[in-house]
Write a structure and sequence with these properties.
The chain is α+β, with helices and mostly antiparallel strands and 297 residues long. The chain has ten helices and twelve strands. Helix 6 packs parallel to helix 8. The longest helix is centred in the middle third of the chain and has 21 residues.
Amino acid sequence: MVNVVMNRYVLPPKTLPTLPLDDTPIEDVRFVVVDTETLGTRPMSRMVEVATVEVKGGRIGAQYDQLVFPKCAIPPDATEVHGINDAMVREQPTAERVLPDLFAKWENAVMVAHSAVYDESILSTEAARSNMWIPPLPILDTLQLSRQVLEPQHSNSLEALCKILNIPQMRAHRALSDVLSTAELFLLLVERLRRAGTGRFGDLCRVSNLSRMGTSARPLQGLPPHLILLRPALLSHSDVEIHYRKDGRTSIFPGTLECGYRHGQHNYVELRDHRQRGRIWSLRIDHIVALRPLPVQ
């Protein structure tokens, strides 16, 4: 059954999911609020936790929270932020196992996140690492929505808005706590729209920066001719030596190929460094000047 679910996402989507009609009352739309915790602040960082909560009819519904094994060490500075350490995720499923079931649960939903650009990037990149295409669901941003609905604030971060609006936070920077706070914030902002006479889905889209999941990253497609052997090396997770030229200098990275994907305008491979076992490098493919196999040991 797991393989059947996963196979739905290894091919690019043929069509975009249909949006609710503009005049649909917001309370009739099924929303799924999502939040991730990661290894760092980069938009391609690996995920260590994902949480969701459903919102419909002005009520918070089913909750989901899952720790994720990132296949590498969690940096101490990341643990200081969210409290998640290596021991907590060591026996947890990888993103490759977690995401297909999540994607199936999100079907026909409108996604919501605070600073949606970041969470969309994290989720799209994790899918692309596993050669999956994230469903191009619509996603709304409560960060942008708060800037349109509320008076100007010194900060529109989730933590700051929760303090200003008296929204409880169980534990800031853990996915379930943050996703519940985001859902409460979303409901409060929607209620203000409704009171202003703009309580339709089209009104919400106009003030909350509607975009689509999957816009930031996707599975790796074409490769330059001099790296034609990179694809079979990726498929077999080969041990290689990468010669990498950046800023006029060439560096050599010996390691095991983990995956490849496209993020933004560039293609990347990720390499598990043989010199630092807990380190995975994200390397732009257009900076790779040579790829050499390492002897089997």
